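Both lines are quoted verbatim for reference:

——
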Amino acid sequence: MRSIKWSYVAEQEYVDVLQFWISHNSSNTYSQKIMKAVEEAEDMLMKNPFIAEEKEDHKDGNVLRYRKLIILQNFSLIYIVRDMIEIVSFWDNRQNPKQLKSIL
């Protein structure tokens, strides 16, 4: 079973989303729902890292390959499978998808 490592950027995005929803709703209920969904997604990824479809993008003449696992419809774990599973972004699916290229 592969281990999971979160990048600094992904961790910050995740914390920012959780804090936003706590502030927005004056409650941590939705943030707890997100956290539970992320934990379940991590468990799935450790068992089968290739569960999400592989995506391909191009940046500066390089081909970028990554996987996108959707969580609660509005969020995705953007990750790369190597010796370990590296989560490179906790992505809000309502953002402009072109911005994802700057993170990869």
In short: DSSP finds three helices and five strands in the chain.
